[in-house]
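Render this sequence as a predicted structure.
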Amino acid sequence: MAFVCSERCWSWTEDLGQFAQDYVVLEPDLEQAWSNSAAQPEHRRQFTKVLEQYQQHLQAYLDHPTGMTLPDTLQTSSHLVSLAVRLDHDIRDASGHIWYHSGTILDPLQVIHYHRKLCFFNQDSSVQRQWLVNTCADPVHAIWVMEQGAFRTWAEQQTRHVYFDQYGYLAHRFSIRHLPAVVYQDGRRMRVDEVLP
């Protein structure tokens, strides 16, 4: 057993014994194997090719990440979403004291007031981009959340923060079925308005 510490620290180890027979490891040293492999031109070419493919894949993902494909809003609609959760286990502090018992319902909107609105849109739609600029212009009270589109290119052109809803997590959480949509607090729930652009 080993313990590494960069500052002054106190530690101990305990010999737990031997549970099975030990065998000599017949593998070459990993560092030496990498050095030998890297020294061979064919391996260097293969590694460089794999690295370039990975970089291209990463750049493509950054340019157009995986979002949620949602249709355009054809008819305005509105619904409420609760952020309350029922605990399925006790929440304890470091000393074991129970702060919240299993079955307790916690609602963050009882404690805080969320004064901003989330504006969900599809960047691939020029109509929705225009709606976004007209409706959610205030950078203090409106947060832009992109569901689809060329994220990196478009975000770099903006003078404000733009967020991307990876894999549609927020759209799913707020039960958004059409874009564009605006989410804001309404009492102790969040109101989701799917609007015409």
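Summary. The first strand starts at residue 77 and ends at 81. The beta strands are 77-81, 85-86, 91-92, 98-100, 105-106, 117-122, 142-148, 162-164, 181-186, 189-194.
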